[in-house]
Amino acid sequence: MSKTAPFEEHTERYEEWFEEHDDAYRSELAALDRLVPATGRGVEIGVGSGRFAAPLGIDVGIDPAEAMLERARERDVDVVRGVAESLPFRDGTFDTALMVTTVCFVDDLARALAEANRVLSRSGRLMVGYIDEDSPVGEIYKEHKDENPFYRDATFVSTDELLDALEAAGFSEFEFVQTIYRWLDDIDGTEPVEEGYGEGSFVGIRAGR
Questions:
Q1: Which pTM was predicted?
Q2: Are the C-beta atoms of residues 89 and 43 closer than 8 Å to each other?
């Protein structure tokens, strides 16, 4: 996860996005809340500023950007600096692993998912939240990615591509939720959370081992 510089340099802009798009953020959070279990020890891989880990009760966060980790600490997340492709945890350490808008920033998706699998307990679950490349919001992000310091070097993935990668990493028993049906600036109030994928631009997947 070497695409770190924008997150070190534009921390305030990152935080302002959540303030300006609060309804979208709360919609994504509601979707993930359906998937993340209320018990067990969890880690968020690519924790950022802790905007998801803290309200979802995730204990530990890892991220390569120190500026982000400082914000996550302020939200009472126990943080570690590191990358998704080489997690500094023993095998089977966690019951839950969470990745939110992380898969498009890793350098090696296959390795990152394999590492997530490694640090999960035998009955552990991986939750992934992301903007589907083939969705309306995904298409706009791709069209304007050069204008955004965060997404300039991102590699967006479709749900089908991500499912193939998850299966190759040893995951199975997939459950899906989706939300965000309009462009972010047009959202007024939280968006519905529905099962499945293919209509909502933000997709959440829960995967077993």
A1: 0.94
A2: yes
Q: Which residue has the tokens 């089908």?
A: 160
Do the Cβ atoms of 117 and 181 come closer than 8 Å? no
Cβ-contact 179, 202 below 8 angstroms: yes
Start-to-end CA span in the chain (Å): 23
pLDDT single digits (tens) 114-132:
999 999 999 999 999 999 9
Dmax (CA) of the chain: 44
Question: What does the alpha-carbon distance between residue 91 and residue 107 come to, in Å, rounded to a whole number?
Answer: 22
Q: Which domains, from first to last, does the chain contain?
A: 5-208 (3.40.50.150)
Q: Can you tell me whether residue 125 is helix, strand or coil? A: strand
Helices (H) and strands (E) in the chain, counts: 8, 8
- Extract the tokens encoding 61: 């966060």
Looking at every residue in the chain, the average pLDDT score rounds to 95
